[in-house]
Amino acid sequence: MANPITSLRIEHITKRFPGIVACSDISLSVGKGEVLALVGENGAGKTTLMNILMGLYTPDEGKIYINNKEVVFKSPSDAFACGIGMVHQQYMLVPNLTVTENVALGMRQMMDGRDGDTTLDKFKRAVKLDLASVRRHIVAISEHYGLSVDPDAYIWQLSVGEQQRVELVKTLCFGAKFLILDEPTSALTPQETDELIELLRRMSHELSIIFISHKLAEVKALSNKVAILRGGKLVFRGNTADHSAADIAALMTGHQVYLPVNQSSKAPGKPMLEVHDLFVRGDRGNMALNKLNLTVRAGEIVGLAGVSGNGQRELAEALTGLRAIESGEVSLDGVSLVGRTPKQIIAQGMGYVPEERNIEGIVPSMSIRENLVLKDIGKPPYSTVGVISNARISANAEKMREEFDIRCSGVNVAAGSLSGGNIQKVILAREISRGPKFLIAVYPIRGLDLGAAEFIHKQLLALRDSGVGILLISEELEEVINLSDRIAVIFKGQIQRTLGRGEATQRKLGMMMAGVKEI
Amino acid sequence: MLDFIVLFLTVGIPLSSALLLASLGETVNQRSGVFNLGCEGVMSMGAFVGMLIPYMVGGSGTVAWYVNVAGLLSAALVGALLGLLYGLVVIKFSAPQGIAGIGLQLFGTGLAGTFYRHFIGGAEGVAGISSIRIPVLCDLPILGKMLFSCNPMVYVAFLMVPTVHYILFKTPWGLRVRACGTMPRAADSMGINVSRTRYQALAFGSAMAGLAGAYLSLCYAKIFTDTLVGGRGFIAVALVYFGRWSPLGVMGGALLFSLAQALQLAVQAYGFAAFPYEFLVMLPYALVIVVLVFVGKSKHVGPAMLGKPFNREMRT
Questions:
Q1: Helix (H) or strand (E) holding A346
Q2: Which domains does chain A have, with CATH numbers?
């Protein structure tokens, strides 16, 4: 097994991808028992840097030192051998294998044998997979660190939080002395996040940790050193305790961040979207919307707060024509939308920022410029008598790129290669530039960094001030409270209650989202 | 009626061996994430190569048992080599597997026919491997004829069912294969060489297909023709889906298909003239299609990344 890692140092690491320098001349060091937070916006190069440290990518330039000795990682197994273990943002677990099988997969002495093996040992190991000893190892590790996992469960049966514990156990079973965690909390519920932070704090007595995050509260709670990346460059290194969350945010984005707040007192106009006694079925045939009533006026943002799975997705899909309406009435600007196709509803002036931006919002393999005109490709100016005009589509894309600050190497690259924030800007640019009467925005800043979130919120507020009605569906209470004129709380397919901007507090909304009606 | 059923089963069970061998091999291929539509071509080459050594040694006459074994082994070896060649195209050069597989099928079938005409020619057959009678058991009524006096390769084929199951589910290599087929990215992050594992799986699976071909020429028809394999390679690929990537399921599929085919032969042999035999000829194929439509669609069983090339530095 590897010697303990007392220091890890990387010097002048540079990695280029076609059209982009993902990491540029980065140097860092981490000592024994330290927790380094690596922060930066999406696309700043954090994950690339860590993949280099794990031997998944080879750096174009630069060197890595462990305990002051240079090491070269050609593949992840070289990094394991030195005691480095990584928990990836997308979990590296095989869904149709059990927890034990997943761990066995990466245990070299289990799969390939040890150096001193006799031929007979090697043969035995090749013909019989010793899962029982792997299982014992898992139980021992999970008891030592207080990580509860069921070694016999299949991965696909586990929740995201449980899968993450499996990842941690797996990494520790491989003998990791140095943990790299890539945005460990991005998919966790608030409770799971608190548990994880507590757990990592305990583990940091025995291990060094690098964790990647852009949630500054966690950075403050957990790390003692912080390093900030921006645009592939290291812009700051220091002790976490010496800097406020606001300082770190400013360094991360390159300017002072302020999340905009809806302060307008302009009175809303006439009712734009009216939903009356709406019933809609969910995927499993259950009634996902149960007599839902809602009105949104022109020039008004109504925030729809609720724990996800209470009918938000079904509402958004029913309003955009993607899901059949069982009964009830929906109208946009006085025109009924019941039984209309998505195309007819779009023509009515409905804009939609869908929940799954990579699947529903764009066609990932098509270029940015094509994605920007997806809804209008069949009409002038983008096409005449069935022939598309590339020149006009490109001109439109360049304009949008400028206006919406879409960061890309060119408008001809595939939209799917952009970061989440830039994909969201492409979608928003398309929807807003069409001049909609109404916009439905579902979790518009989920998974985005602060800079992108700020930009998108500003756009939504500007759209509201121009007289468009907006239905903002979100789980983030801060977002709902900051932006909305009125807040409706959805619970089990019904609107619990609607609150004015002044009355809503996080605590009140939280209770109503859990089903309490009167407070 | 009993005679009819005995005939039907006695014909049907051996008939499934070629399918069984080929689709067990294809199961291993697909578990690693690569499907091989070229199975048909590999079987053709296996059929030719399998009878080449016995023919060279003894012509159409009987040869020593080890000569026949050498024929079987050479068929497996050529199968494995063709598998590696296919691997080079779809793993190293990431060619689309559907198209490359069809290419391999045409290549294998064509090459086998050409070689046969060049090296053997005419309608020369071999004595091949004959059935064995297992002492005592073969004298049992009904069962004796049905189960205990078959060709040795039939027993080998059925023994491969638990063997492949053991390999896939109880050995480190099998675990690696399953991981590479479902989530190569995860396997790679744990230090497993995805390409190497897929090459190995392809070599193993194609060796099985070569053996299946040799069964047809050495044990079943005892002669080679261009149409000897007759679509069995494609049926073998379909049976893997049918069996949900489990050796036992694949065996069920191979038996179902072969028994349906035997039913048609038995009906013809007994000459139920009123019944249109063309319907029964069609039956096994229709059966496979119908069952494939209704077969379970659970996402959690099979290799999720089947047919997708793996490239570590591809940004998705």
A1: helix A342-347
A2: 1-83+180-257 (3.40.50.300), 95-174 (no CATH), 258-349+436-519 (3.40.50.300), 356-419 (no CATH)
Residue B177 pLDDT greater than 70, yes or no: yes
Name the residue range of residue B175's domain: 2-294
B171 inside 8 A of chain A by CB: yes
pLDDT of residue A224: 87
Residues from chain B contacting residue A154 (CB–CB below 8 Å): 300
The residue of chain A nearest to residue B312, with distances taken between CA atoms, is A56
Identify whether the C-beta of residue B124 lies closer than 8 Å to the C-beta of residue B223.
yes
Question: Does residue A313 come out as left (phi exceeding 0), alpha (psi in the -120 to 50 range) or beta?
Answer: alpha
For A78, the closest chain B residue by CA position comes to B191
Q: For chain B, how many structural domains are there in total?
A: 1
- Examine residue B302 and state whether it is found in any structural domain, yes or no: no
A-B C-beta contacts closer than 8 Å: 83
Nearest Cα residue to A38 out of A202, A221, A180, A194: A180
Say if the Cβ atoms of A111 and B185 lie within 8 Å. no
Distance of residue B39 Cα from the nearest chain A Cα, in angstroms: 26
For residue A244, the tally of other CB atoms under 10 A from its CB is 10
Q: How many angstroms separate the CA atoms of A45 and A40, rounded?
A: 8
Establish whether this prediction's ipTM goes over 0.90. Answer: no
Indicate yes or no: CB of B189 within 8 angstroms of CB of A77: no
Give A400-411 pLDDT, tens digit per residue: 999 998 988 889
The model's pTM is 0.76
Q: Tell me how close the Cα of B244 comes to any Cα of chain A, in angstroms.
A: 13
CATH number at residue B215: 1.10.3470
Contacts of A108 in chain B (CB under 8 A): 191
B192 reaches A (C-beta below 8 A):
yes
Task: For residue A128, list chain B residues with Cβ-Cβ distance below 8 A.
Answer: 170-171
B167 part of a folded domain: yes
Q: What is the pLDDT of residues B278-302, one digit of tens each?
A: 787 788 788 878 877 877 666 667 7
**pLDDT for the residue numbered A1:** 44
Bond prior to A190 in cis (omega within 30° of 0) = no
